[in-house]
Amino acid sequence: MIAAQDLHTEFQFPQEAESQLSSDTDLEDPDGKNAKTGKGLAAKKGKKALGDKAKGGGAGRVTGPGWVNGHHQENGMENMTLFEVVKMGKSATQSVVDDWIEAYKHDRDTTLLDLINFFIQCSGCKGAVSGEMFRHMQNSEIIRKMTEEFDEDSGDYPLTLSGPQWKKFRINFCDFIAVLVRQCQYSIIYDEYMMDTIISLLTGLSDSQVRAFRHTSTLAAMKLMTALVNVALNLSINMDNTQRQYEAERNKVIAKRANDRLELLLQKRKELQENQDEIENMMNAIFKGVFVHRYRDAIAEIRAICIEEIGVWMKLYSDAFLNDSYLKYVGWTMHDKQGEVRLKCLTALQGLFYNRELSTRLELFTSRFKDRIVSMTLDKEYDVAVQAIKLLTLVLQSSDEVLTAEDCESVYHLVYSAHRPIAVAAGEFLFKKLFSHRGPEEDGLPRRGRQSLNGSLIKTTVFFFLESELHEHGAYLVDSLWECASELLKDWETMISLLLDEPMPGEEALNDRQETALVEIMLCAIRQACECHPPVGRGTGKRVLTAKEKKTQLDDRTRVTEMFAVALPLLLAKYCVDIDKVTNLLQIPKFFDLDIYTTGRLEKHLDALLRQIWEVVDKHTDTEVLEACSTTYHYLCNEEFTIFNRVDIARSQLLDELVDKFNRLLEDFLQEGEEPDEDDAYQVLSTLKKITTFHNAHDLTKWDLFTSNYRLLNTGLQNGDMPEQIVVHAMQCTHYIILWHLAKVSDGTSVKGDMVTLRKQMRAFCLMCQRYINTINNAVKEQAFTILCDLLLIFSHQIMSSGREQLESLVYTPDSSLQAELLNFILDHVFIDQDDDNSTDGQQDDEASKIEALHKRRNLLAAYCKLIIYNVVEINTGADIFKQYMRYYNDYGDIIKETMSKTRQIDKIQCAKTLILSLQKLFNEMLSDLGFNFDRSSSAFCGIKELARRFSLTFGLDQLKTREAIAMLHKDGIEFAFKEPSPQGEGSPPLNLAFLDILSEFSSKLIRQDKRTVHMYLERFMTFQMALQREDCWLPLISYRNSLQAGADDDTMSVISGISSRGSTVRSKKSKPATASKRKLPEGEHFWCSLNSSSSSDAVWMNREQNVQTPVMMHSPHLTSTVLRDPKKMRPEDSFTATFTMPADRRGSGLMEDDEEPIVEDVMMSSEDRLEDINEGMDFDTMDIDLPASKNRRERTELKPDYFDPSSIMDDSVLNVSMF
């Protein structure tokens, strides 16, 4: 297409300025007769002086109407630059361009200078090109000068600024360029002056290292190219028309041929051809000078602009651009690392494939890049994946032979995607592929019924559903097809016909598996039509329906009711013994409009439905079927509808029969002296299971089932030979009995004496469950444990909340023995290895069984943790749970972490004591396993220390909130470390001294003042000889003291990790006189008591604390009896509470003390590409960090990066600031 020379990137203007500009507007020359022909961009010579006269143009500063001194004037208002006019957007772009053209005709140099400055200002540059610069400086020199004047303080420029004004500016900017070329297309763009200058400027700016210049000029150049493509297209059309006119005139007989017209047409064609060549030269210059370099720019937005515009060119002027020379750029860029660029590639190709005529010319491109497009359906950017699927749909429509079966199958499975836009796009692809092709034999088929076209399409849907082997995801398949095939999926009449009608001769009937799938699809379609929202996992919630959608929903619900009120009893009668079909069919009534039973005179069909449900209950013992029957009765028994009495009578009759049968069977089953056989046990179990299932949704208290169930449980406990399923369902039924009884008592509908009866029954049942926890059978024990935890939670002290003080007598608090039994059950049945779990009855090798067993254990742990959270059992019982945090992190880490978080909200101090207690338990277990001479580098000790570090991270960064809790944690830890004397005798370290190494993990959570106080409390347990020891066995004490002294006097608050070297130097600190602190004490400061000034020992330790910073006890002769006293003989008044103090906050004289500069600094990277690469390589989750509101820099400098280990489990208060 284009074969001109490359454009020079310097401002070069023709020396002669004798363009014959017409006084008329530039829009009145559709045939290009008045166009000034030239020699193209390669023929430019010199630069015209700004002050020279232009023929017919007057002096250099003469302006046209609407333009005053190079500035636009609007309604007599203040003069504005072209940039300001476009930014304001108050004037129509057409009028602004017309005014500029008129001014250009009078003084093109000045006006063109304004246009140059317009592009400079649109880039955000504060500088301007002066007339002197315009005359004497080259293009590169001008750009260099503008770069120097660019404001580097901010990286923002108009195209990147946010806000509605700047979004509108981008639109106005693009419109201005398009309108400018359109208005100038008949003469001015051919004057070899304006376009040459603009193209040269934009080419130079697009090569700038300044992003703003490069971005803005690339956008302008691409829009300029698009406008030129439109001009070239118009010229091509005019040339074709002129050629046809010439051929028609020449083919006339000589007598009728007009020679002058032939000459005129030849001249016109020649002029159009010259103009076409000129436009091609301009487009060639832009393409080679800008596009070829910028489509691979480092900035993704610039690359996206190039790809978006080349797609427009190929669509507008396909004869010139729709070939492999240009398509290759789109194909290459589909591998771009940025999603927005890949997205532009796909949308550009969609515009081409949408046109059938253009799609036939894309065969070579499709064969080359088809695999890439197919792979993009799995793109990590959801928007890109959606557009890739839509593109493949267009490719499929253009030709059935392009995509192979493997290509289609890679899209088919996406209908089950959790991301709804992807699923919907894949559903449309599936619909186009499987359902849109009709043969000639299908044109005469009926619209509805088994023999209709929809009948075959529904069968195809069923076949696809079964072949996908994802039978539990029918709702997702229906949702994916809903937008494109809702009419097909709502053809319930055809579905019913396929299920009930006999097949025609020669027709292949559906087998059992296919009928099951059809019933599921039918149910999912009914649910989608009546609920009008996608299935779980595909939507953020129920959206507000429009009036039209609400009307459609009501109409569909009416159709469902009218159709299935008649058909459902027939379907249940046919498939009465099929569990899967019956379970799905019984869910349909909950979508009925029950008023239609009365208004439509369908009562006989209601009776038929109730009879069929009775039959289902009588024939089935499967839990899912029975629950579906119970739920259906619950929905139909609605007192708001007139059918209530009819349904209630049927329900009562059914329950009467079940209860009578159960009591009769129970008497025979529990007869003394007779061995119950398996048939009797099965009859009792099946009847009990039905009663239990119905009791879940219906109130059966009037049948007084507690006595019979309690008798059954008691007998099973005494004899020990009761079948486990009977015991499990008897427990569940009794649980429902108590809950329904409580509901009646709570809402005030009970009679006198019900409260006492409920209290007796509840306590008797709790004792029964407690006894069953100690039985042998796992299923029975787990059921008893779960029910007991639920009852303890329900009948805890919280039952009196919300004004229900009258229920105080029902409160049941577990005693210590019951709490111990519950905890032991958790330790024995939850915290076990996968191989030790025998609950799956020999199916441990089955992966599904492992998952099910783990799910069951998680439920057991959650049930117990709720008792801790709601303060039903003592918080310190959680120590045995918390100590398992690291070992069972993958299985129960989320549950344990949430439990710790909730307990901290209840009582921070007690939670901290529980955490340290869990560490102490682990430490004691390690001692019992390894002995007191264990290696501190052993995996067991390192594991305890790592757990302590994790616990420390859960306290967050606000040290003031957790101050008291951390202090008590250190107190308990110190006491534990010195609790037991050394088994090796005097002079050896205490037995638990190594625990101080674990305790040091919490030292960073102490504020500066508290470190001193904790250090003083530690020294109460130390002797003078302990302080002088340097053997390895004393290193935990040295390390812990270092962690407490680090930052106690140093404003930098550095955290000393590990063990300091023995050769550390001693620094004496010259302290200033203490000054009164201006900071108010936080709440809860009453916890901190002042030191007794009369205590000589405390005064000595305070004095020594101010002067000594190493663990070495330097010249300190003033030893008192406090430090020499045996720790076990300490007086109560020397307790930890009396020791803690709030010393006066002394301000240092250094700059660090009062410096309020934020400690988190922004780091600018020199290359954005490197930053993007770094972000793409990050595997760990980002963390949000809220800095505490404190002006004391010394406290905030404790926030070391070491504590932000991404694998650590942190408190919610820590997880809030992106690292990048």
TrEMBL record:
Full protein name: Cohesin subunit SA
Lineage top rank: taxon: Eukaryota
Keywords: Cell cycle, Cell division, Chromosome, Chromosome partition, Coiled coil, Nucleus
Entries under InterPro entries matching the protein: ARM-type_fold, Cohesin_Scc3/SA, HEAT_SCC3-SA, SCD, STAG
Annotated GO biological process: cell division; chromosome segregation; sister chromatid cohesion
Keyword Cell division (UniProt): yes
Compartment(s) of residence: Nucleus; Chromosome; Chromosome, Centromere
Organism of derivation: Oreochromis aureus
Cellular component terms (Gene Ontology): chromatin; chromosome, centromeric region; cohesin complex; nucleus
Record family assignment: Belongs to the SCC3 family.
